[in-house]
Amino acid sequence: MSYDKVKQAGKLIVGAKQALKAVEAGSVREVFIAKDADPRVTSKMVSQCRKLSVPVTYVESMKQLGKACGIDVGAAVVAAVNE
Questions:
Q1: Residue 52 phi, psi (nearest 5)
Q2: Which superkingdom (predicted)?
Q3: What's the pLDDT tens digit per position in 3-28?
């Protein structure tokens, strides 16, 4: 399940803006997006990931994604950084 993949990812970038910058810089190996996140927040990330061949994994909810990152609030987008 993708929840476990997030927890095992190591270095994470939480948040759409920071994650997008990292994707554009080429330092991300995978992006996790919450299915219930606002498309206005996630659509640019999805198109950039497609363009740059970065795999996108969808997680059930923002709450679940935030919890997987060890934070108490929901997260729309999380990027797993290359180490």
A1: -100, 10
A2: Bacteria
A3: 677 777 778 999 999 999 999 999 99
Bridge partners (DSSP) listed for residue 34: 59
With beta carbons less than 8 A apart as the criterion, state whether 36 and 61 touch. Answer: yes
Q: Does domain 2-81 have CATH number 3.90.79.10?
A: no
Enclosing H/E stretch for 16: helix 16-25
Query: Mean per-residue pLDDT for 35-57?
Result: 96
pTM for this entry = 0.92
Q: What backbone torsions phi and psi does residue 77 show, to the nearest 5 degrees?
A: -135, 135
Closest to 81 measured CA to CA, from 33, 19, 15: 19
